[in-house]
Amino acid sequence: MATEQSLESIFPALRLGHVEGHSKEPEENEIGDKIACGRKCTSKTLYGSWDNEEDDFIWSEEYPDNIAEAAENEETMQCAILVRKKKSTDPRRSLEIHSIVIQSPLIKEVLSEVFAGYPDCNLELERTEIDAPFGPFVHRWDGFTSVLEDEKLGEETRQHLQLLNDAIAPEVTDIINKVKDYKKNNVVDFKYLWAIFEPGCTVFTIEHGHQMAACFETSTYIETQNGKQLLLWCKSINWEKPDFGWESKRLTIKEFKSTIPISSLPVFPLKNHKGHGIIEQNLIQRGKLFENLCGLQYRDYDGQAVQVVQLQHSFEVREKAVRVQERIVIDAEAYDRFNPHDQTFTHPILDDKEKNVESSRFGHAEYTVIPIDFVKKGESRKTLTEYQQLLCVPSVRGYALKTKRWLRLSVSSVKEIELNEGAFSSLVLPENYKKLLRAFMESQLQFKNDFDDFVAGKGKGIVILLSGSPGTGKTLTVESVAEVLKAPLYSLSAGDLGTDSGSVQERLDDALQLAADWNAVLLIDECDVFLEARSSDNLGRNELVSIFLRTIEYYEGIMFLTTNRLDSIDPAFHSRVHLSLEYPGLEQSSRKEIWSGFLDKIGKGEQRHALSEEDVGKLASLDLNGRQIKNVLKTSNLLACSEKTRLRFDHVKTVLEVWRYKVQ
Fold it and tell me: Which CDD domains does the entry mention (predicted)?
């Protein structure tokens, strides 16, 4: 009891709490003359005034004397328009209009047609506010004035519109006349630069050396460390699985002095380009190529590309131009997954709410695209319109298979693959090896999911182990198989996977997933470190072998493993390997065949090599592997080219002597 009394004396509010499940209303006499905080059902208004010493507001119940009465009230709500003026920064006049509030439903009904499609101009609101410098009026002035001259216009509507015209005309006429004069002479100054860009117009710029068109949306002047700039927000068509969409583009124009040609700007309206007709057609054709390249594509490439690298310990990225001449896989989804620092984001293309408002043959174009995932069998997916093709970005995202780089690839440099269909038949291998390899490959692709292990997901792939000394043709075999199957060759080495168990697991999972997605032939070259038999004195390597064993068992594609040390592989691999081929050292007859095969690729007609059968026989007597033969001929041919003559036996002999090989 003493404890209860003590608590009540310390916490009198407890007396107002719940007693046996019932709430109790507060009573003033229960806690003196005070009511508990927040329990009185009323509100109070406080008024703030700024205190410079405190650098904060001081709140009081008294209404401040220095606050002017609100200018907009029930009386102003009856007006068709409200014109708000402020002190002018122009020395030629004392006041200028800050903004206009349009309240007349008659005016808004007319302007909804004149300003159709203009951004940030909502005329469905009860009060529509338009700020200086009155972009909608500047860009649609001819449409606005033509409505005033329409004889079918009702008298009351005409009076309301004339009222608006009288207020706005003095503000925009100078700008309109100035811009018309600039456009006529194809020049502009920085002050009126914003006015030459009408929302919806097609703009022209250069991106990574490639011409590009975009749809202009809005602009604003900004202050930066490098001075004043005009920031332009535009949008282009890009691909983000499973659909085409709008990608936002942020373009800038730095402040410049005096007037300059419009076409000298880094971005300007396409119609101001003297060759805009030809440019339009070229960009539309490139857009068609872009459209056909979206999704997963296996192609050849010859040209410049851009590699976007994230700087270490930083959110900044650096773009590096690289020369690429190799096979590629176009896969935007995988690019974004492995390059989050350069991810592409798009927003949907709406059906009929988005229209291009530019006055051209693309005017009021409707954008409609069906996501691929929703296209039913037997139905053709809707294609992009010509206007959308015009606005497609100039690059696709993909992977260079030989140099193992994720790149932004120029659409114009993507080529069809010219397969070397004779590569497999020209392999210097026993015929039964070739027959077995071809049977394994074709059956795996045709009946990939027909056989499975007892455990779901296991045993669907095929693993082939190639063993032998360096230069005996293991890698060439895999390359030739990929040519026959018309499939990408995705190759990795032990160095690419690393030696840390955590990174090996992650990189191996990524590689196997990509190879499966691309239906690629996967080559893990010289993977001895992952195949070597486990031992009790090297737990780190044991873990790597275990990871490798477990991972390849669940792989569903075609995998080649190559090793130079067949005798040392872990016994557990024998049950995971479906076919094991051992490559013996090359005999003289095989070496002669390899020499002849490489020589046949050097020159045609008068440029053909000048080596005889006897010369080839002498070369075949040397104990060289396939890789060495290839390197000798490559160096010899360079020597012949420097002398501007055909490849001769003495060229090859000179190179071999440098290599310390004696030729009779």
Answer: RecA-like_protease
CATH class label, 431-583: alpha beta
**In this predicted structure, which of 273-277, 333-337, 430-434 has the lowest mean pLDDT?**
430-434
- ∠ CA 32-36-38 to the nearest 5 degrees? 150
Number of H helices, E strands in the chain: 18, 23
In what helix (H) or strand (E) does residue 437 lie, and over which residues does it extend?
A: helix 431-446
What is the distance between the alpha carbons of residues 365 and 387, in angstroms, rounded to a whole number? 7
Q: In the structure encoding, which two tokens stand for residue 40, read together? A: 């009185």
| Rounded Cα–Cα distance for residues 133 and 172 (Å) | 7
- Residue 365 CA to residue 605 CA, distance in Å, equals 56
Neighbours of 348 (CB within 10 A): 14
E strands, 453-556, in order: 462-468, 489-493, 521-525
Residues 368 and 273: their CA atoms lie apart, in Å, by 28
* Spatial distance between the Cα atoms of 653 and 648, rounded to a whole number of angstroms: 9
pLDDT recorded at residue 558: 87
User: Distance between CA 176 and CA 181 in Å, rounded?
Assistant: 9
Q: Where are the alpha helices (DSSP H) in 299-418?
A: 332-338, 386-390
Q: How far is CA 450 from CA 445, 447, 514, 556, 630, in A?
A: 11, 5, 22, 12, 41
Would the CA dihedral through 644, 649, 654, 659 be positive or negative? positive
Comma-separated ranges of CATH 1.10.8 domains in the chain: 588-658
- Predicted confidence at residue 173, as pLDDT, reads 94
536 close to 499: Cβ distance less than 8 angstroms: no
Residue that is written with structure tokens 């009394």 in the block: 5
Please check whether residue 118 is in contact with residue 357, taking contact to mean a CB–CB distance below 8 angstroms. yes
**Of all residues in the chain, what percent carry a pLDDT higher than 90?**
42
- Crossing angle of helices 105-114/155-184, nearest 10°? 40
Q: Provide CATH 3.40.50.300 ranges for the chain.
A: 431-583
Structure tokens that stand for 48 in this block: 């703030």
Residue with tokens 């309109």, as numbered in its chain: 176
Are the C-beta atoms of residues 420 and 318 closer than 8 Å to each other?
no
Q: How far is it, in rounded angstroms, from Cα 527 to Cα 465? A: 10
Topology of domain 588-658, CATH: Helicase, Ruva Protein; domain 3 (1.10.8)
